[in-house]
Specification:
Cytidine Deaminase, domain 2; four-stranded mixed β-sheet; 30% strand; 284 residues; single chain; Ubiquitin-like (UB roll); alpha/beta
Length: 284
C-alpha cells in the first residue's frame, strides 16, 4: 500500500534572535517528485507537496488538453511501490482510446513549456488552437464578496500557517462560500489539484465559480482556469503581461492586488457587480 502523504516535515534549526542563538524544531513544507504515467509510459514529472495526488494528475491531464471530459479517465491510482525510495510518488492513469496521447508530441510540448525559450505568441497560439470557449459571460460577482475571499483563504491554509512555505488555490461560489482549497509548493500544482477535484466530482465547467490564488496570477493559471470554464480569477499579487493578454482575448475576468479594500481589474470589468463609484482616470 502507498504510504500516507505527508505535507510537512519536522527538522531542527538554529534561530538567531537579537544576538541569542537557540535550537528549535521547525516545520518545512514537503517537496517530492510525482511521476504521472499513462499506463506504463511516463508522461511528466512535477515537484509537488504530497497529498491529493489523483486530483493533481486529473487536473494536469485536463488543463494540458490530454483529456476533455471526466469519462475519458478510466482509472487513476497510485502505482504499487517497487522499492523503499520515494514510495507512492507515481500516479498511473488509464485513458479512453480517443484520449491516448502521442508521446513524441507530448514530450516536445512539456519540454518547451518548461523552458525559458517559449515565446508569448507561441503560448497564446497553442491555447487558441484548442478552440476554448470564453467563460460564462453572465456571471456576476459582488465586490464586497470578493474582498472577503483572501481572509477565507488564509484561515483555511492549515499547512501554510505552520510552514509559511506553500501556495494555495481555492474555489468559491458567487456568495463567497469556500468550495475547496488545496495547498502546494507550486502555485500551478495547487490550481491543478483544485481543478482535478472539480473534474472528478463532476463539477466542470466551473461556470459559476471564482478561483483565488495566493501568489501572482501567471499565464499558466489563467490558461488552466479558462480550460475549466472559470469566469473570474483573482490573486493577491500581480498578474503577468501574458496572463493579462490571454484573459482579455478570451474574456476572463482577471483581478490582481486583492488586498484590504482594494483590487485592480486587468480584464473583464463587466462581471464585477455592486456599487462602484467612477473616478477620473489617473495619467500613466
Amino acid at each position: 500500500m502507498p504510504r500516507k502523504a505527508r505535507s510537512m516535515n519536522l527538522t531542527q534549526v538554529s534561530e538567531w534572535d537579537d544576538g541569542k542563538l537557540r535550537r528549535k524544531d521547525d516545520y518545512l513544507a514537503a517537496e517530492e517528485p510525482l511521476e504521472i504515467r499513462i499506463g506504463d509510459d511516463p508522461l511528466s514529472v512535477t515537484m509537488r507537496t504530497p497529498g491529493h495526488d489523483p486530483e493533481l494528475a486529473a487536473g494536469f491531464l485536463f488543463t494540458e488538453g490530454l483529456i476533455q471530459r471526466r469519462d475519458q479517465i478510466l482509472k487513476l491510482q497510485n502505482a504499487e511501490p517497487q522499492d523503499d525510495i520515494n514510495p507512492g510518488n507515481v500516479i498511473e492513469a488509464e485513458l479512453a482510446t480517443e484520449a491516448a496521447p502521442d508521446f513524441a508530441k507530448m514530450k516536445r510540448h512539456f519540454f518547451a513549456a518548461s523552458s525559458c525559450g517559449i515565446c508569448g505568441k507561441a503560448s497564446i497560439d497553442s491555447i487558441r488552437s484548442r478552440l476554448l470557449a470564453s467563460p460564462n459571460p453572465d456571471f456576476r460577482l459582488d465586490a464586497d464578496i470578493l474582498l472577503r475571499l483572501p481572509d477565507a483563504l488564509r484561515d483555511s491554509q492549515d499547512v501554510f500557517q505552520r510552514t509559511g512555505g506553500l501556495h494555495a488555490a481555492a474555489l468559491f461560489d458567487p456568495n463567497g462560500k469556500l468550495l475547496v482549497l488545496r495547498e502546494d509548493i507550486g502555485r500551478h500544482n495547487a490550481v491543478d489539484k483544485v481543478i482535478g477535484w472539480a473534474l472528478l466530482e463532476g463539477r466542470v465547467p466551473l461556470s459559476d465559480s471564482v478561483l483565488l490564488v495566493s501568489g501572482r496570477g501567471g499565464f499558466e493559471i489563467v490558461q488552466k482556469a479558462i480550460v475549466a470554464g472559470v469566469p473570474v480569477v483573482a490573486s493577491v499579487s500581480a498578474p503577468s503581461s501574458l496572463a493579462v493578454q490571454l484573459a482579455r482575448e478570451l474574456h476572463l475576468t482577471l483581478i490582481g492586488f486583492l488586498r484590504g479594500r482594494r483590487f485592480v481589474i486587468y480584464a473583464g470589468e463587466e462581471r464585477m457587480a455592486g456599487k462602484t463609484q467612477k473616478v477620473s482616470r489617473t495619467p500613466a
